[in-house]
Amino acid sequence: MIEIQAVTKRFGDYTAVNDINLHIKAGEFITLLGPSGCGKTTLLRMLSGFETPDEGLIRIGGEDVTHLAPYRRNVNQVFQSYALFPHMTVRENIGFGLRMQKVAAAEAAKRIEEVVALVALQGFEDRKPSQLSGGQRQRVALARAIVPRPSVLLLDEPLSALDAKLRGQMQIELKRLQKHLGMTFVFVTHDQEEALTMSDRIAVFNKGRLEQLGTATEIYHQPRTAFVADFIGEANLLPAEFVARTDTTVRVRIEGGLELNVSPAQWPAGLQRALVSVRPEKVHVSKKPVDCENVFEARVEEELFQGALDRLLLQFTGGTRLNAVVANESALLEAIHEGDRVWCGLHTDDLVVVRTE
Amino acid sequence: MQALPSTSANSPHARRPRVWGWVLLAPMIAWLVLFVILPMVILFVYSFCTRDDLGRVVFEFTFDNYRRVGDPIYLTILGRSIAYAALTTVLCIALGYPVAWFIARQREAVRNTLLLLVMIPFWTSFLIRTYAWITILKGEGLLNGLLLAVGFIPEPLTLLYTPFAVIIGLVYAYLPFMILPIYGSAEKLDNALVEAAHDLGAGPVRAFSEVIVPLTWPGIAAGVLLVFVPAIGMFAITDLMGGARVPMIGNIIQNQFSKAFNWPFGAALGVVFTFMFILAYALIQRRGARDPHS
Amino acid sequence: MKLLRILPLLVLAAVFATVARAADKELNLYAWSEYIPQSVLDDFTKETGIKVNYETFASGEEMLAKLLAGGSRYDLIQPPDYIAEALIKNKLLIALDYKKLPNFKNLLPEFTKMPHDPEQKFTIPYMAGTVGIVVNTEKIKEPVTGYKDLFQKKYKDRIVVLDDGRELVVAALYTLGIGLNDITPANLEKARPVLADWFKLIKLFDSDSPKTALLNGDVDLGLVWGGEGAILWNEDKKFQYILPSEGAHLFVDILAIPKGARNQVAAHKFLDYILRPEVSAAISEEFPYTNPNGEARKLLKPEQLANPASYPKIVKKLDTFRHIGESSTLIDELVTDLKNAK
Prior knowledge:
By secondary structure, chain A is of the alpha+beta class. Chain A has helices at residues 40-48, 90-100, 105-118, 134-146, 164-181, 192-198, 216-221, 226-231, and strands at 2-11, 14-24, 29-33, 55-60, 63-64, 75-78, 152-156, 184-189, 201-206, 209-214, 236-245, 250-254, 259-262, 273-278, 284-286, 294-306, 309-316, 321-327, 341-346, 352-354.
């Protein structure tokens, strides 16, 4: 559907988007994720036509749109600020795109009615944007963008202005709507949770570069770079050094002298140093010995009670520290407290080797 | 909660802000009464008076002055003044809008510099600037000299003392009064709205007419008021740059007070003129009221 | 607190003191702009210790309106002759005390007992002038002797005239052989077609500085004040000044003491000062109008006297304007109508 080939965009000396290649499939919900200033919004604006790439090529539906004006593209955008026309009613706002496309009045009225029903705004058609709540405005912006039936819908942090609860609802609604319409959604956010919830695929950006492209599970479980590992969820990043290799395992030494077994698939032959990433929730902690490929004794340095979860800071002999999150299932049976000696287990499959930068 | 409004209305504290409001407004009200309402009342009274041999106003009721305002001579002059003012206004919008829009889209530092440039002419007396235009437009002036030098024209053009010169003078004098209010509303316009219009398929023209103009309408309306109304009454430019050949309503009114010894008739013209201003203002306000957001 | 209460009284006292002193040592003069050299005023102050407050106006009508409105008390005013006539008629001037004006004898007899002040009781002529035709002889080769030579079709858009309805109407009346003060509706109807033809030829109307357009080369002929003509001649001898053969308007600007003047003593001192030959000649040096002071004329340089616009060759008797009262409205209407129709 969308092909982005070797696209670079500079603003003066600053390279906002650096040699990006990305193919987006039709009907896909793809999220461009990254911290602010990573280039995701610039890339989106090049898709909508508000910016032109300095280098590279963009195709949408097979057509080269690299230098096509925004109003000639079959692409619509939901703006972060919604950008609703304050002098128009909800109906006029939603109908604006149809009017520009010169859709016949009767047909337009029908389509507006449908989309108003779809976003549940019946009864608000004659209000002005200033008379709506934040969530309602968000839905008007969405309706206005989808009613012209674009081949691609671009969403620029559309939920960032909503409060947490409403945002959660809208995430589900958006995902449902996208499935219902079968439309290609390109969604920009800096919120990794939002990205994980909604996306078919996630493209993680950092400093103008595409760090990793993959499904939510891939990105989460198999981060390829330290940045991705750290940005998506939480990760313990342990500098490791190659020790020995067998058919079934690679032994590496981490700081403090502890040795770990990692999967040979993760550790390419000849690699000397890398980071080993492990999610806090994959650290198994118990007062009894645990059944894992890697088992260590540790001391609980700190304990942070977080309701359903218990957050622990563990320290091993040799000084290495590790964050762990454990389910707070049976406080009575096996309560872990600060200062306790515990067993700590790490499955080989949960250890992900990422490149050092 | 229901009981609260009544208690607060009875408390002395609730009334204090109202008294203070009047106290703070007093200088403003005094100013208005002294320098706006009182002169208007005097003008209104004079317009129904006659005058004596020396041009002194005699308090003797007559409707003649208004009858004379209705004379075809003065109606054509008024019509012509309105036409010139309307043309001036249109040209000011055509020239001023792009300038205001351009300035509003710049970085703040550039914006302030450009605004300063727009306002710099105000530092010099209006008459001196008008004389500068005479130097530019006269037969052996700068413009003709330039055009002759580059061989653009075979002989000097007659520019000065023509309606063309009057329009140039009027547009020049009033352009900043169009640029500044339009800039004021253009600067507040969120660029995302323009992008949204483009995004939804509106080309430059449609985006301009459907989104930008309605949203900068308050600025345009203010500019129109600031240009159109004074331009109707302007007399210095028609005298200096038009050679006083074609009378405008402003010249006529000025004449009644300075040369023709006829204050009551001048007052009657002034009153009619003021009512026209109020009418124009009301019309523009009504247009504005239809778009409550603006 | 005590000081605060006294303060307004102190201020009031100071104001009264100033006013009292002012009445003694100040002269409030209300005169045309650019007509009295500053050096002349400064020398008067140096000599007498009387400070001159010089307030200006741009038209006789403006002066009259302000004088009648009251408020400002002037000791000396400088109206044109026909306004002075109206003031005399309405008893708004104070009779002069000739004992205090020994220099009065310097005036030429033809400038005394003029129609506006036939008994010579109230007014002293300051400067006089004519309204005549200026021709740029470099551009216009044919001789121009009167209004009929000036307003010719071939000079269309090459003429500047005074933006003064009365001067234009009078010029038209001259060509019809009608006296310049016979402003009646019937005479104005006769003047109308003449003016209508003229207005089609005029490039611009300017009373303030008609010389500008002539100097700029935008026009080649003009009907202008004699003073303007004199400056043009001084600038370039190609600008010739001609008194129209049909007759011409002579204007006299006079000095007079209005009713209500506070400092009549100073006013008389100033009048006599102005009448001194050397002072009057100094004024002519800066403003080349027609000097009515015979003794002063003797002090002028030959080239000053040779200026045809200051001292024109008089072909026909010159006439002065008389007060016409409400007839000025008829002139205003006629001129407005004609300009409008153009």
